[in-house]
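Design a sequence for this backbone.
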């Protein structure tokens, strides 16, 4: 039950992020101290489309996490959470973004770790 709640929460956050990236890219950049331009907005909107495309699969995970297909979506979700955090960490270390990116980095790492832990815990119970 806890895994279902965490996955539902994650799907909602991803949907909200996708909306922000698609419709308000300059505002999303401003949060981390970057001034948007047409090229950067285009890249963020493309990223928003990619994040939006993950939402239906993540939403479907709420009902089943045991099938091979569900495991593939979970792997993609956790991979996205960890890899996007690494990208953000790299940009922070190289002074491309400001400290506002740190809570997001930490949150995505913790969320990915929580999902992995809950999946493992659920698997052990079976």
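Sequence:
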């Amino acid at each position: 039950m806890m895994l279902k709640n965490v996955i539902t929460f994650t799907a909602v956050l991803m949907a909200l992020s996708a909306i922000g990236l698609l419709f308000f890219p300059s505002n999303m950049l401003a949060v981390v101290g970057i001034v948007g331009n047409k090229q950067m907005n285009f890249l963020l909107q493309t990223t928003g489309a990619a994040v939006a495309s993950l939402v239906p699969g993540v939403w479907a995970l709420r009902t089943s996490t045991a099938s091979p297909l569900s495991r593939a979506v979970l792997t993609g979700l956790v991979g996205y959470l960890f890899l996007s955090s690494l990208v953000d960490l790299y940009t922070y270390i190289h002074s491309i973004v400001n400290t506002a990116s740190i809570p997001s980095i930490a949150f995505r790492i913790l969320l990915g770790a929580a999902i992995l832990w809950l999946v493992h815990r659920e698997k052990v119970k079976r």
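The radius of gyration is 16 Å.
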